[in-house]
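Thread amino acids onto this structure.
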């Protein structure tokens, strides 16, 4: 039993700890808001730039069709040149800016890598803009996460800044980047705590929460208040029907492992010498051009394609083919080394997978009816979980992106089924695997 003296000492220790923590929070308050503000602004500029780039690509493809079959060479030339430039910039000026950049941010937070923040910021923006605009099936969220982290590092690099704030502000900037990409502040916060930091710490939580909220407010103020996908479901699935989401989660976990192993195997392409690597860039650009000529909606991050799926504009007979094409293009696009994330491409694959499972479920049990879009939304979160192994982030992300809070139980069932299958197969989460690969080079 503690003596009164020991109790007094413990009380004084807690009071001192609380005082020091409050002081650190006050110092972090303006910097956290600044990280969120800057990240929100750069995310808005990047978003609008990509919208312009996508419009330019679609216009180019449309105009090229006026030249008949010869027009395909215009499209192929454009995509091949853009892929080459996007990959070349990363390879020669900032290799750490390649891909999503999230493994690099994790390495910085764990003390394994330094952060050339200004170089990453510039190369990430330009390479991502060129590569995704030309049709690489990569998402904008990876670049915004790493650019947000770079801005956090930039604030730490200012005079009179405290070096012990690096982890806090870099993590806050990364979370703000995800928040800004999807208008999802809670998902950005959960991503920091679940994926980047791997622990719940008061200062990280405080700074990330402020940065995510600020970035989201900036994006909503400049781009609009609506969710990324505004989907209205007629009713939530009945409790008895939750079991039908278990097979979806299990399949998502299995195919998530397939995605991870395929992506890691394809990363060996980055170890080629200069000439074979350039040839691969050009082949990838050619493939993007050919797909864009016949089906331009299959290119890019995939937001437009998800909108088509939710609007029932894509037939079930096309979904299997589109899944395979997007799967291959995503692996190839990421393997070029150009800047771009895999969050959005994963969500596209998950939506396609969800609709496939819904179709076969309806064929087997026609008396059971659950809205197809519910399967698409749950499939997005479950496949994300199978690849990234961050179920809470996937669940919150889908709720915020679609505005469907009534799907919390189906999301929970499918995501944790996916997690259990992927873990049972002893597969590393993709960002952990990419980080391990990078550290062992």
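Threaded sequence (441 positions):
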């Amino acid at each position: 039993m503690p003596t009164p003296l020991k109790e007094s000492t413990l009380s004084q220790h807690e009071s001192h700890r609380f005082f020091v923590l409050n002081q650190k929070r006050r110092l972090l308050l303006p910097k956290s808001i600044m990280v969120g503000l800057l990240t929100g602004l750069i995310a808005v500029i990047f978003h609008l730039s990509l919208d312009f780039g996508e419009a330019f690509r679609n216009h180019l493809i449309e105009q090229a069709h006026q030249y008949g079959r010869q027009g395909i060479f215009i499209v192929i030339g454009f995509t091949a040149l853009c892929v080459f430039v996007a990959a070349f910039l990363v390879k020669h000026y900032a290799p750490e800016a390649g891909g999503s950049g999230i493994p690099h941010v994790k390495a910085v937070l764990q003390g394994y890598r330094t952060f050339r923040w200004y170089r990453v910021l510039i190369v990430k923006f330009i390479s991502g803009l060129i590569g995704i605009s030309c049709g690489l099936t990569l998402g904008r969220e990876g670049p915004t996460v790493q650019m947000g982290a770079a801005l956090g590092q930039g604030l730490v690099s200012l005079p009179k800044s405290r070096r012990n704030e690096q982890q806090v502000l870099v993590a806050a900037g990364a979370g703000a980047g995800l928040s800004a990409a999807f208008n999802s502040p809670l998902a950005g916060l959960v991503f920091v705590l679940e994926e980047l930091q791997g622990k719940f710490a008061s200062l990280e939580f405080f700074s990330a929460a402020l940065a995510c909220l600020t970035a989201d407010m900036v994006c909503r103020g400049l781009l609009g208040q609506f969710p990324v996908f505004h989907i209205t479901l007629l009713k939530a699935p009945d409790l008895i029907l939750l079991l039908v989401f278990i097979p979806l989660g299990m399949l998502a976990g299995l195919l998530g492992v397939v995605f991870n192993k395929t992506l890691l195997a394809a990363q060996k392409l980055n170890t080629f010498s200069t000439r074979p690597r350039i040839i691969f860039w050009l082949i990838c650009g050619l493939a993007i051009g050919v797909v864009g000529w016949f089906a331009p909606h299959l290119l890019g991050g995939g937001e437009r394609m998800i909108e088509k799926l939710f609007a029932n504009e894509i037939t079930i007979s096309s979904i299997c083919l589109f899944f395979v094409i997007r799967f291959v293009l995503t692996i190839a696009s990421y393997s070029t080394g150009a800047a771009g994330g895999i969050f959005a491409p994963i969500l596209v694959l998950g939506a396609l997978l969800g609709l496939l499972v819904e179709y076969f479920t309806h064929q087997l049990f026609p008396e059971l009816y659950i809205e197809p879009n519910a399967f698409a939304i749950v499939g997005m979160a479950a496949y994300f979980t199978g690849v990234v192994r961050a179920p809470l982030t996937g669940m919150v992300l889908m709720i915020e992106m679609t505005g469907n809070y009534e799907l919390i139980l189906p999301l929970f069932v499918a995501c944790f089924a996916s997690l259990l299958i992927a873990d049972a197969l002893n597969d590393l989460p993709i960002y952990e695997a990419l980080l391990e690969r990078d550290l062992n080079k």
